[in-house]
Design a protein that fits this description.
By secondary structure, the chain is α+β, with helices and mostly antiparallel strands. 31% of the residues lie in helices and 33% in strands. It has a six-stranded mixed beta sheet with strand order 1-2-3-6-4-5. α3 (61-78) packs parallel to α4 (97-111). The radius of gyration is 17 Å and the shape is globular.
Length: 156
C-alpha cells in the first residue's frame, strides 16, 4: 500500500520534539519558520527534482538549474519571506563540465536578481537528484502564509 506524503510525514517523521520556543512552524511539507533573534524569523523552503524532472526536460541543465532555484525561491516569497540564502545538494552520475556550467549559470540567473547567496551544500555521484533549500527572512510579528509547514501545524 502506497503512503501519501502527508501521511508518511505524520507516521514516520513527526515526533515529540524538544520544547523550543524558536520553532514557529516545524516539520511539515517543504519548509519551516524559525525565530532567529531580533525582529526576524527565518523561513526555509525546499525544492527537489529527481529523475522524472530530468526525463521531462531531456536533462536540459539550464531548465533544471532554473527550475530548482525558482521553486525554492517561489515558496519563500509565497510565504511572505525575503529570500536571502540557498544551499544546494546535487547528485550526478558523472561530472560533465559543460552540463555543470549551464546548470550553475541558470541557478545563479534566478538567485542573483534576488540577492540570494549560495552558502553551501553537497555534491555526490549517483542517480540524478537536485535539492535547493531556500532560506529567507520575515518580520517576527508577521504570520507566514500557510504554504510553509503542514496544514494544521501548531505555532509556538
Amino acid at each position: 500500500m502506497s503512503v501519501g506524503e502527508f501521511a508518511l510525514i505524520e507516521r514516520y517523521f513527526r515526533r515529540s520534539r524538544p520544547a523550543r520556543d524558536d520553532v514557529l512552524v516545524g516539520i511539515g511539507d517543504d519548509g519551516a519558520v524559525v525565530r532567529v533573534g531580533g525582529d526576524h524569523s527565518m523561513v526555509t523552503a525546499i525544492a527537489t527534482l529527481g529523475t522524472a524532472a530530468w526525463d521531462a526536460c531531456g536533462g536540459d541543465p539550464s531548465r533544471l538549474g532554473h527550475d530548482a532555484m525558482a521553486m525554492a525561491m517561489d515558496q519563500l516569497t509565497a510565504a511572505g519571506a525575503q529570500p536571502a540564502w540557498a544551499t544546494l545538494a546535487l547528485t550526478l552520475p558523472e561530472a560533465e563540465e559543460g552540463w555543470l556550467a549551464a546548470f550553475s549559470d541558470a541557478l545563479f540567473a534566478v538567485a542573483t536578481p534576488l540577492s540570494v547567496s549560495l552558502i553551501g551544500g553537497d555534491t555526490t555521484r549517483g542517480p540524478f537528484a537536485v535539492t535547493v533549500v531556500g532560506h529567507g527572512l520575515i518580520k517576527s510579528d508577521a504570520q507566514p502564509a500557510p504554504t510553509v509547514g503542514h496544514p494544521g501545524e501548531p505555532s509556538a
